[in-house]
Specification:
There is one protein chain. With about 425 residues, this protein is α+β, with helices and mostly antiparallel strands. The protein contains 14 helices and 16 strands. The protein has an eight-stranded mixed β-sheet with strand order 1-5-6-11-10-9-7-8, sandwiched between helices. Strands 13-12-14-15-16 form a five-stranded mixed β-sheet. It has a three-stranded antiparallel β-sheet with strand order 2-4-3. Helix 1 (about 15-30) runs antiparallel to helix 5 (about 135-150) and helix 5 (about 135-150) packs parallel to helix 9. The longest helix has 17 residues, at about 15-30. About 35% of the residues are buried. Bound molecules: adenosine monophosphate. Adenosine monophosphate (AMP) binds near residues 125, 304 and 307.
Length: about 425
């Protein structure tokens, strides 16, 4: 046996139903907020992420599945979707075709990370992006939509966290303030943080190493260094979130691991997830479209980890039972009807088929015995009440979706939930 590669996983029947349900909710919500779906290739030029995600990020420095293809070109499996979405926006001049460019995508991403619960090397993201709108009303709308998605999936104890990392004007000022505040203590930081202090000091806030925490906790906060324009954008965003009734917490440590963010950053954390508890994260990236060779357009979006959403969904959202099970001894082919039903193939006995039907959690069993076939009808057994009724095929759908079939007048003692009917 050749096993799957470490950090990748199969999604099997039994689990896939939860994925389908999550994807359905995703599509519903994206549609309601006016997003159109796009699908981009999983393989792109390496430089798209070096430039887009950022040379100094862990993703680009350590985690990309990058290689030279047979034509000698440097390519990579995509580690995230935003640079691809920006590329597609520019390459297809999407703003000429869509009134407001609101797009979403679902698909696999690849990062060579250390696998653990909720962290994989191939994982799936929902990616949501909007281009060309710099109004804070959109920041609030995007965060509200993300919170609405988590809620619609039935995930409880989720927490919305927001921050602002400023813009090209005020972010460098804050970076210098961080280095000044560190002073001599920089030498006590871990190796990663010392490297960050030199190239991108804001990223020190991402550090999880325990010995760095007291030093990081004492550092100044980005929101105290915002320029006037960023300050009023942040105040407008948080004010609108309050008006929309979205509960949130401001965290100065939320700088996010990617280089392109400007102004608003946000995450939604899931209570039950353990160490890898970020369900989704995103923010504004007003300079990125230009950096990747496009026009000067604002951008904002988020990416949600589908594995984590599915993991955090409540247990009740498991496999859905088929609408009905057809029991047809003697291999009788059921007449066509618009019924979502499971049928057992092969000419097993009525008793064996009934036993299998009983093991599913189907609400109804459709019985097609000799008598029913002779009369051109079918017996519907309601598995909850135990009641049965004989109907013509034209009435099957109405009966299955209508009121429960009343229970039979008296249940034989010691009967199981399902009794094998005597068809003789
Ligand atoms: P990022 O693209 O790093 O901002 O991550 C956005 C979301 O994708 C995170 O909040 C996670 O839910 C999910 N995610 C990121 N990396 C992984 C991974 N290696 N495995 C599973 N989910 C991930």
């Amino acid at each position: 046996m050749i096993p799957a590669i470490r950090g990748t996983h199969d999604i099997l029947p039994g689990e896939i139903e939860r994925w389908q349900q999550a994807e359905q909710v995703v599509r519903d919500i994206c549609g309601r907020y006016g997003y159109r779906e796009i699908r981009t290739p999983v393989i792109e030029r390496e430089e798209l992420f070096a430039k887009g995600t950022g040379e100094t990020t862990d993703i680009v420095q350590k985690e990309m599945y990058a290689f030279e293809d047979k034509g000698g070109e440097r390519v990579t499996l995509r580690p995230e979707a935003t640079p691809s979405m920006v590329r597609a926006f520019v390459e297809h001049a999407l703003e000429q075709h869509l009134p407001t460019v609101k797009i979403f995508s679902l698909g696999p991403m690849f990062r060579y990370e250390r696998p653990q619960k909720g962290r994989y090397r191939q994982f799936h993201q929902l990616d949501v992006e909007v281009f060309g709108v710099s109004d804070a009303a959109l920041d609030a709308e995007v965060i509200e939509m993300a919170a609405g998605l988590v809620e619609a999936l039935g995930i409880e104890d989720a927490e919305v966290v927001v921050n602002s990392v400023g813009c090209a004007e005020c972010r460098p000022v804050f970076g210098r303030a961080l280095v000044t505040a560190l002073g001599d203590r920089e030498a006590d930081l871990c190796g990663d943080c010392r490297r960050r202090a030199a190239v991108n000091p804001l990223r020190i806030f991402d550090c999880k190493v325990p010995s760095c925490q007291p030093i990081v906790d004492a550092l100044p906060h980005a929101t105290n260094y915002l320029c006037d324009a960023c300050r009023s954008h942040f105040d407008a965003t948080t004010g609108l979130l309050e008006a929309l009734g979205v509960a949130f917490r401001v965290s100065h440590r939320l700088v996010r691991g990617l280089d392109y963010y400007t102004r608003t950053t946000f995450e939604i954390l899931g209570g039950r997830l353990g160490a890898q508890n970020a369900l989704l994260g995103g923010g504004r990236y007003d300079g990125l479209v230009r950096r990747l060779g496009g026009p000067d357009r604002a951008g904002i979006g988020f990416a949600a980890g589908m594995e984590r959403l599915v993991l955090a969904m409540p247990d009740g959202s498991g496999p859905r039972a088929p609408g009905a099970v057809i029991v047809a001894p003697g291999g009788a082919a059921p007449p066509p009807a618009r019924v979502h039903a499971r049928i057992y193939y092969g000419d097993r006995s009525m008793k064996a088929q009934m036993r299998r039907a009983n093991r599913t959690s189907a609400r109804h069993v459709l019985i097609l015995g000799d008598e029913e076939i002779a009369r051109g009808s079918v017996t519907i057994k309601d598995m909850t009440s135990g009641g049965e009724t004989l109907v013509g095929w034209d009435d099957v759908v109405r009966k299955l979706t209508g009121d429960p079939i009343p229970a039979p007048p008296e249940q034989p003692t010691g009967s199981r939930r399902l009794r094998v009917r005597d068809t003789a």
